[in-house]
Design brief:
Pfam family, one: Nitroreductase
CATH topology of one domain: NADH Oxidase
Number of helices: 7
CATH superfamily of one domain: NADH Oxidase
Structural class: alpha+beta
Distance between the termini: 37 Å
Protein name: Nitroreductase family protein
Keywords: Oxidoreductase
InterPro entries: Nitroreductase (IPR029479), Nitroreductase-like (IPR000415)
Strand content: 15-25%
Radius of gyration: 18 Å
CATH class of one domain: Alpha Beta
Order of helices and strands: HHEHHEHEHEH
Family: Belongs to the nitroreductase family.
Strand order of the largest sheet: 1-2-4-3
Number of strands: 4
CATH architecture of one domain: 3-Layer(aba) Sandwich
Length: 195
């Protein structure tokens, strides 16, 4: 199902960026196989990182599996309302300490870049994603026995978009509300050259 919500940008953007949004209404009949997920992970793999450290790590779960349920169970109640219909849930984590015990100061930033690459690649494949900070990191750590040097960062829902009317009324309204962002000038620090 195609449901475009192209951003009303102040300057032209590539369609992959302008059309990317974060729906909550996922098609519960849509599934993702290995061939669907591999290009997304490959895009993340090629993201830039400090000293080419590549600190990102992914836990991939597909709807209908025990691992999906375990990851779903760590989500906040507000995310559980809709995330169970996603085709896959991915835990994204960062190795914040290297093999010698030194802190990787840019690990979270680098992991964010990997997620951005994954999200754009998903968009290119006709998939949608929704990034969630609303999850219990401690519960994730326990459920999947994550090592201490790995920090859970975000959970991604991946799949195909469905009609907003599948959602409870307040969420359906948010799904169809106009997209907005702060004006560009408000994002520039005072010393920046105005663009």
């Amino acid at each position: 199902m195609t449901h475009r919500r192209t951003a009303d940008t102040a300057h032209p953007l590539h369609p992959l960026l302008a059309e990317r949004w974060s729906p909550r209404s996922f098609d519960p009949e849509h599934g993702l196989d290995h061939a669907d997920l591999t290009p997304l992970l490959e895009a993340a793999r090629w993201a830039p990182s400090a000293n080419n450290s590549q600190p990102w790590r992914f836990l991939v779960t597909r709807r209908g599996t025990d691992d999906f349920v375990r990851l779903y169970d760590t989500l906040s109640a507000g995310n559980q309302v809709w995330a169970g219909a996603a085709s896959a849930l991915l835990l994204v984590a960062a190795e914040t300490v290297d093999g010698d015990g030194r802190a990787r100061s840019h690990a979270l930033y680098d992991t964010g870049q990997a997620v951005a690459h994954l999200v754009v690649q998903a968009q290119a494949h006709g998939l949608v994603t929704h990034q969630m900070g609303g999850f219990d990191a401690g519960a994730v750590r326990a459920a999947f026995d994550l090592p201490d040097q790995v920090t859970p960062v975000v959970v991604l829902a991946v799949g195909q978009v469905a009609a907003a009317d599948r959602l409870p009324a307040p969420l359906a309204a948010r799904e169809e509300a106009p997209r907005s962002r702060l004006p560009l000038d408000s994002l520039l620090l005072p010393v920046s050259v105005q663009v």
